[in-house]
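User:
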Amino acid sequence: MLELKKDLQEIKNIEEKIGKKISDILYNLEVENNNINEVKALKNDIYEKTSKVFTYNLRKLIQLESTQKRLAKKIGVSEDLLSKYKSGDAFPSIETLIYISQIYKISIEKLIEIPLSSSDIEGLECNEQNEIDFFEEKYYVYFLVTNVAMEGAIHEGVFEFYNDKVEFKILSKENVIKAFTGKYNVSGKLIFFNLHSITDGMVYINMIKPNVNKDKYIGGLGMLMLPSDANSKPCTQKILFSRIKLDREFYSKNIRDLLSFTLEGESFGHVKVAQWEDESAYNFIKKLL
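Assistant: Predicted structure:
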Protein backbone atom coordinates (compact mmCIF):
# COMPACT_ATOMS: atom_id res chain seq x y z
CA MET A 1 0.00 0.00 0.00
CA LEU A 2 2.83 2.42 0.89
CA GLU A 3 4.55 1.58 -2.40
CA LEU A 4 1.36 2.43 -4.32
CA LYS A 5 1.09 5.77 -2.50
CA LYS A 6 4.72 6.53 -3.38
CA ASP A 7 4.00 5.68 -7.03
CA LEU A 8 1.01 8.03 -7.02
CA GLN A 9 3.16 10.89 -5.74
CA GLU A 10 5.82 10.22 -8.40
CA ILE A 11 3.13 10.20 -11.10
CA LYS A 12 1.78 13.50 -9.80
CA ASN A 13 5.28 15.07 -9.85
CA ILE A 14 5.93 13.91 -13.43
CA GLU A 15 2.49 15.16 -14.49
CA GLU A 16 3.27 18.61 -13.11
CA LYS A 17 6.64 18.61 -14.91
CA ILE A 18 4.95 17.63 -18.21
CA GLY A 19 2.35 20.37 -17.80
CA LYS A 20 5.06 22.97 -17.23
CA LYS A 21 7.11 21.83 -20.24
CA ILE A 22 4.09 21.90 -22.54
CA SER A 23 3.35 25.46 -21.41
CA ASP A 24 6.96 26.48 -22.02
CA ILE A 25 6.95 25.01 -25.52
CA LEU A 26 3.66 26.65 -26.43
CA TYR A 27 4.29 30.12 -24.98
CA ASN A 28 8.10 30.61 -24.77
CA LEU A 29 9.69 31.74 -28.05
CA GLU A 30 13.22 30.85 -26.93
CA VAL A 31 12.15 27.29 -26.23
CA GLU A 32 10.28 27.15 -29.54
CA ASN A 33 13.53 27.85 -31.45
CA ASN A 34 15.08 24.76 -29.84
CA ASN A 35 11.84 22.84 -30.22
CA ILE A 36 13.15 19.41 -31.33
CA ASN A 37 15.26 18.76 -28.25
CA GLU A 38 12.58 20.10 -25.92
CA VAL A 39 9.90 17.90 -27.52
CA LYS A 40 12.18 14.86 -27.27
CA ALA A 41 12.69 15.52 -23.57
CA LEU A 42 8.96 16.03 -23.13
CA LYS A 43 8.21 12.74 -24.89
CA ASN A 44 10.59 10.96 -22.54
CA ASP A 45 8.71 12.43 -19.57
CA ILE A 46 5.38 11.39 -21.09
CA TYR A 47 6.66 7.83 -21.59
CA GLU A 48 7.93 7.73 -18.00
CA LYS A 49 4.56 8.88 -16.68
CA THR A 50 2.64 6.46 -18.93
CA SER A 51 4.86 3.57 -17.84
CA LYS A 52 4.42 4.40 -14.15
CA VAL A 53 0.63 4.77 -14.48
CA PHE A 54 0.36 1.46 -16.32
CA THR A 55 2.56 -0.27 -13.71
CA TYR A 56 0.42 1.21 -10.93
CA ASN A 57 -2.81 0.06 -12.59
CA LEU A 58 -1.31 -3.36 -13.30
CA ARG A 59 -0.66 -3.84 -9.59
CA LYS A 60 -4.25 -2.87 -8.89
CA LEU A 61 -5.46 -5.48 -11.38
CA ILE A 62 -3.24 -8.10 -9.74
CA GLN A 63 -4.94 -7.27 -6.43
CA LEU A 64 -8.31 -7.61 -8.14
CA GLU A 65 -7.43 -11.04 -9.54
CA SER A 66 -5.77 -12.11 -6.23
CA THR A 67 -2.61 -13.49 -7.89
CA GLN A 68 -0.16 -12.49 -10.63
CA LYS A 69 -0.63 -15.93 -12.20
CA ARG A 70 -4.39 -15.41 -12.63
CA LEU A 71 -3.92 -12.00 -14.24
CA ALA A 72 -1.25 -13.33 -16.62
CA LYS A 73 -3.59 -16.11 -17.72
CA LYS A 74 -6.51 -13.70 -18.11
CA ILE A 75 -4.65 -11.24 -20.35
CA GLY A 76 -2.82 -13.95 -22.31
CA VAL A 77 0.82 -13.34 -21.36
CA SER A 78 3.44 -15.38 -19.53
CA GLU A 79 4.12 -14.73 -15.84
CA ASP A 80 7.69 -13.73 -16.75
CA LEU A 81 6.46 -11.07 -19.18
CA LEU A 82 3.89 -9.82 -16.65
CA SER A 83 6.70 -9.50 -14.09
CA LYS A 84 8.60 -7.33 -16.59
CA TYR A 85 5.51 -5.16 -17.09
CA LYS A 86 5.17 -4.85 -13.32
CA SER A 87 8.81 -3.85 -12.81
CA GLY A 88 8.80 -1.41 -15.74
CA ASP A 89 11.39 -3.41 -17.69
CA ALA A 90 8.91 -3.92 -20.55
CA PHE A 91 5.83 -2.17 -21.89
CA PRO A 92 2.92 -4.06 -23.50
CA SER A 93 2.12 -3.96 -27.20
CA ILE A 94 -0.84 -1.94 -28.42
CA GLU A 95 -2.89 -5.11 -29.03
CA THR A 96 -2.26 -6.22 -25.42
CA LEU A 97 -3.38 -2.82 -24.14
CA ILE A 98 -6.51 -2.99 -26.30
CA TYR A 99 -7.27 -6.50 -25.03
CA ILE A 100 -6.85 -5.49 -21.36
CA SER A 101 -9.07 -2.44 -21.85
CA GLN A 102 -11.77 -4.54 -23.52
CA ILE A 103 -11.93 -7.38 -20.99
CA TYR A 104 -12.02 -4.94 -18.06
CA LYS A 105 -14.26 -2.47 -19.93
CA ILE A 106 -12.03 0.55 -19.29
CA SER A 107 -10.61 2.91 -21.90
CA ILE A 108 -6.97 2.67 -23.01
CA GLU A 109 -6.59 6.30 -21.92
CA LYS A 110 -7.65 5.39 -18.38
CA LEU A 111 -5.45 2.28 -18.41
CA ILE A 112 -2.23 4.14 -19.25
CA GLU A 113 -2.88 7.74 -18.18
CA ILE A 114 -5.09 7.75 -15.08
CA PRO A 115 -4.34 5.79 -11.88
CA LEU A 116 -7.29 3.56 -10.98
CA SER A 117 -9.06 4.62 -7.80
CA SER A 118 -10.59 2.38 -5.14
CA SER A 119 -14.05 3.08 -6.59
CA ASP A 120 -12.78 2.05 -10.04
CA ILE A 121 -11.59 -1.27 -8.64
CA GLU A 122 -14.88 -1.80 -6.79
CA GLY A 123 -16.70 -1.18 -10.08
CA LEU A 124 -14.49 -3.70 -11.90
CA GLU A 125 -15.04 -6.23 -9.12
CA CYS A 126 -18.79 -5.74 -9.30
CA ASN A 127 -18.76 -6.17 -13.09
CA GLU A 128 -16.81 -9.42 -12.78
CA GLN A 129 -19.13 -10.77 -10.09
CA ASN A 130 -22.22 -9.90 -12.12
CA GLU A 131 -20.80 -11.92 -15.02
CA ILE A 132 -20.53 -15.05 -12.87
CA ASP A 133 -23.45 -17.33 -13.69
CA PHE A 134 -24.72 -18.42 -10.27
CA PHE A 135 -28.20 -19.49 -11.19
CA GLU A 136 -30.17 -22.08 -13.10
CA GLU A 137 -32.96 -20.76 -15.32
CA LYS A 138 -35.71 -21.47 -12.77
CA TYR A 139 -36.15 -21.72 -8.99
CA TYR A 140 -39.14 -22.24 -6.74
CA VAL A 141 -39.49 -19.88 -3.80
CA TYR A 142 -41.45 -20.14 -0.57
CA PHE A 143 -42.41 -17.52 2.00
CA LEU A 144 -45.07 -17.13 4.67
CA VAL A 145 -48.45 -15.52 3.97
CA THR A 146 -48.73 -12.33 6.06
CA ASN A 147 -52.34 -11.29 5.43
CA VAL A 148 -54.39 -11.74 8.61
CA ALA A 149 -57.02 -13.96 6.96
CA MET A 150 -54.45 -16.56 5.89
CA GLU A 151 -51.54 -15.83 8.21
CA GLY A 152 -49.16 -18.75 8.59
CA ALA A 153 -49.88 -20.38 5.23
CA ILE A 154 -46.97 -20.84 2.82
CA HIS A 155 -46.83 -18.95 -0.47
CA GLU A 156 -45.21 -20.54 -3.50
CA GLY A 157 -43.63 -18.66 -6.38
CA VAL A 158 -41.10 -19.05 -9.16
CA PHE A 159 -37.94 -17.12 -10.01
CA GLU A 160 -36.88 -17.25 -13.66
CA PHE A 161 -33.56 -15.90 -14.97
CA TYR A 162 -33.13 -14.61 -18.52
CA ASN A 163 -29.51 -13.49 -18.94
CA ASP A 164 -29.31 -10.44 -16.67
CA LYS A 165 -33.10 -10.14 -16.20
CA VAL A 166 -35.23 -11.73 -13.50
CA GLU A 167 -38.95 -12.46 -13.26
CA PHE A 168 -40.61 -13.28 -9.92
CA LYS A 169 -44.14 -14.77 -10.03
CA ILE A 170 -46.30 -15.43 -6.97
CA LEU A 171 -48.63 -18.36 -7.54
CA SER A 172 -51.96 -19.57 -6.23
CA LYS A 173 -53.01 -23.04 -7.42
CA GLU A 174 -50.52 -22.72 -10.30
CA ASN A 175 -52.04 -19.39 -11.40
CA VAL A 176 -49.98 -16.21 -11.36
CA ILE A 177 -51.46 -13.67 -8.94
CA LYS A 178 -48.56 -11.19 -8.94
CA ALA A 179 -45.54 -10.78 -11.21
CA PHE A 180 -42.43 -8.63 -10.82
CA THR A 181 -39.48 -8.09 -13.16
CA GLY A 182 -36.07 -6.50 -12.79
CA LYS A 183 -32.38 -7.25 -12.42
CA TYR A 184 -29.94 -8.41 -9.79
CA ASN A 185 -26.57 -7.04 -8.73
CA VAL A 186 -23.70 -8.52 -6.79
CA SER A 187 -21.91 -6.42 -4.18
CA GLY A 188 -19.30 -7.97 -1.95
CA LYS A 189 -20.78 -11.07 -0.33
CA LEU A 190 -24.41 -10.25 -1.13
CA ILE A 191 -26.80 -10.39 -4.08
CA PHE A 192 -29.53 -7.75 -4.43
CA PHE A 193 -32.74 -8.13 -6.45
CA ASN A 194 -34.63 -4.95 -7.38
CA LEU A 195 -37.97 -5.93 -8.92
CA HIS A 196 -41.08 -3.99 -9.83
CA SER A 197 -44.61 -4.32 -11.18
CA ILE A 198 -46.82 -1.61 -12.64
CA THR A 199 -49.81 -2.92 -10.69
CA ASP A 200 -48.20 -4.43 -7.57
CA GLY A 201 -45.36 -2.07 -6.71
CA MET A 202 -41.81 -2.95 -5.68
CA VAL A 203 -40.07 -6.02 -4.25
CA TYR A 204 -36.58 -6.10 -2.78
CA ILE A 205 -34.67 -9.27 -1.96
CA ASN A 206 -31.12 -9.71 -0.76
CA MET A 207 -29.29 -12.93 -0.12
CA ILE A 208 -25.84 -14.30 0.68
CA LYS A 209 -23.81 -14.79 -2.51
CA PRO A 210 -23.56 -18.51 -3.36
CA ASN A 211 -20.21 -20.24 -3.15
CA VAL A 212 -18.88 -20.13 -6.72
CA ASN A 213 -16.86 -23.30 -6.11
CA LYS A 214 -20.10 -25.26 -6.07
CA ASP A 215 -22.12 -26.04 -9.17
CA LYS A 216 -25.15 -23.89 -9.87
CA TYR A 217 -27.02 -22.49 -6.89
CA ILE A 218 -29.13 -25.19 -5.24
CA GLY A 219 -31.06 -23.21 -2.66
CA GLY A 220 -30.90 -21.09 0.46
CA LEU A 221 -32.47 -18.20 2.30
CA GLY A 222 -32.88 -14.56 1.44
CA MET A 223 -34.57 -11.55 2.99
CA LEU A 224 -37.75 -10.48 1.23
CA MET A 225 -39.22 -6.98 1.45
CA LEU A 226 -42.79 -7.26 0.11
CA PRO A 227 -45.60 -5.02 1.42
CA SER A 228 -48.45 -6.78 3.22
CA ASP A 229 -52.21 -6.25 3.52
CA ALA A 230 -52.87 -5.03 -0.04
CA ASN A 231 -49.63 -3.02 -0.17
CA SER A 232 -50.65 -1.02 2.90
CA LYS A 233 -48.02 -2.13 5.44
CA PRO A 234 -44.22 -2.51 5.22
CA CYS A 235 -43.14 -6.10 5.75
CA THR A 236 -39.85 -8.00 5.87
CA GLN A 237 -39.54 -11.77 6.01
CA LYS A 238 -37.39 -14.71 4.94
CA ILE A 239 -37.75 -16.33 1.54
CA LEU A 240 -36.61 -19.86 0.68
CA PHE A 241 -35.08 -20.58 -2.75
CA SER A 242 -35.13 -24.15 -4.08
CA ARG A 243 -33.93 -25.63 -7.36
CA ILE A 244 -36.76 -28.18 -7.09
CA LYS A 245 -40.48 -27.84 -6.39
CA LEU A 246 -41.32 -28.71 -2.77
CA ASP A 247 -44.43 -30.39 -1.44
CA ARG A 248 -45.64 -27.61 0.85
CA GLU A 249 -47.98 -29.88 2.76
CA PHE A 250 -45.54 -32.74 3.28
CA TYR A 251 -42.59 -30.47 4.18
CA SER A 252 -44.70 -27.85 5.95
CA LYS A 253 -42.85 -28.04 9.27
CA ASN A 254 -39.41 -27.98 7.62
CA ILE A 255 -40.29 -24.94 5.54
CA ARG A 256 -41.89 -23.09 8.47
CA ASP A 257 -38.85 -23.76 10.67
CA LEU A 258 -36.56 -22.31 8.01
CA LEU A 259 -38.75 -19.25 7.43
CA SER A 260 -39.65 -18.41 11.03
CA PHE A 261 -37.91 -16.01 13.41
CA THR A 262 -37.60 -17.33 16.97
CA LEU A 263 -37.47 -14.48 19.47
CA GLU A 264 -37.98 -16.28 22.81
CA GLY A 265 -39.01 -13.13 24.59
CA GLU A 266 -35.87 -11.23 23.62
CA SER A 267 -35.80 -7.66 22.29
CA PHE A 268 -33.93 -7.16 19.00
CA GLY A 269 -32.76 -4.03 17.20
CA HIS A 270 -32.62 -5.88 13.89
CA VAL A 271 -33.09 -9.25 12.22
CA LYS A 272 -30.80 -10.85 9.65
CA VAL A 273 -30.20 -14.11 7.84
CA ALA A 274 -27.18 -15.80 9.43
CA GLN A 275 -24.74 -17.94 7.48
CA TRP A 276 -25.76 -21.07 9.42
CA GLU A 277 -29.43 -20.48 8.52
CA ASP A 278 -28.59 -20.22 4.84
CA GLU A 279 -26.52 -23.42 5.09
CA SER A 280 -29.40 -25.20 6.85
CA ALA A 281 -31.71 -24.31 3.97
CA TYR A 282 -29.08 -25.44 1.46
CA ASN A 283 -28.64 -28.77 3.25
CA PHE A 284 -32.42 -29.33 3.36
CA ILE A 285 -32.76 -28.79 -0.41
CA LYS A 286 -29.59 -30.77 -1.15
CA LYS A 287 -30.98 -33.89 0.58
CA LEU A 288 -34.07 -33.78 -1.65
CA LEU A 289 -32.20 -33.69 -4.94
